[in-house]
Amino acid sequence: MAWQQATIDTDSAVAEQFADALMDAGCLSAAIEDALAGTEAEQPIFGEPGEPVEQMWKSSKIIALFEEHADLALMIAAATTATGIALPHYTLERVEEQDWVRLTQSQFDPIRISERLWITPTWHDAPDANAINLQLDPGLAFGTGSHPTTRLCLQWLDANIKGGETVLDYGCGSGILAIAALKLGAGDVAGVDIDAQAVRASLDNAAQNGVSGIFCLPDATPEAKVDVVLANILANPLRLLGEMLASHVKTGGKIVLSGILQEQAEELSAIYNTWFEMEAPVFDEGWTRLTGTRRA
């Protein structure tokens, strides 16, 4: 089986509308991408969940997939009519059947976090059998170790978990930070997420790694104060959750925050300075890690 794929140049202002029109016309999928991706003019776009991004790319392209014998030209023409725009320039290619699972797996290699800590997909052998290897496959829940925010938090855990600490990972996603804390020697560890699917993924990943912790929805968050609270989420929820997160940290305990853009670091540090002695931020590829020590 094969498919037809069209790469369609479009104005960013109408890209989403045009992609929806293609779907209505019968295309199988339509993804909007930065037309300048991979060049010096590539433009990163950031936005908080549930909110529109402040701007779109300067120019966009739509990657649309069609059935092998679909009248692609007619369907693109129908989408232009529906959106009231001129017929855009597009190129075509044939997409052959492939082993998509093997192809996807080939894109993910082990990730080295530190001298002793690796993230290794289950289909790979551990690069260093003597290291601490977290087995974690890319999935639907956020957190595979490749993103700078996750990497920043893992590096902090690697440098600071000495053994026996109690840890709360708020916004646990795949459970990667909670699992890393356990494998590094932490004691009681809990992971909390608003997404039931993330809680399920965390439980499965913990079992895969031979560790156990508490993973739950926010209503079931353990009430005990802990030595370390991790929150690798985003700036907006971190602005709102400061008092609640602080309430879970023992006097002298640590808070570790990420998911924060570099330009947001000063504001977030000032907010958390209400409860914590904040340290200098650490940056990685435009993202920030903030840490602080709980005051009495």
From TrEMBL:
CDD domains: AdoMet_MTases. S-adenosyl-L-methionine binds at residues 150, 171, 193, 232. Keywords: Cytoplasm, Methyltransferase, Ribonucleoprotein, Ribosomal protein, S-adenosyl-L-methionine, Transferase. One of its GO terms (biological process) is methylation. SUPFAM superfamilies: S-adenosyl-L-methionine-dependent methyltransferases. GO terms for cellular component: cytosol; ribosome. InterPro entries: Ribosomal_L11_MeTrfase_PrmA, Ribosomal_PrmA_MeTrfase, SAM-dependent_MTases_sf. It is found in: Cytoplasm. Its EC number is 2.1.1.-. GO terms for molecular function: protein-lysine N-methyltransferase activity. It catalyses: L-lysyl-[protein] + 3 S-adenosyl-L-methionine = N(6),N(6),N(6)-trimethyl-L-lysyl-[protein] + 3 S-adenosyl-L-homocysteine + 3 H(+). Belongs to the methyltransferase superfamily. PrmA family. Methylates ribosomal protein L11. This is Ribosomal protein L11 methyltransferase. It comes from Craterilacuibacter sinensis.
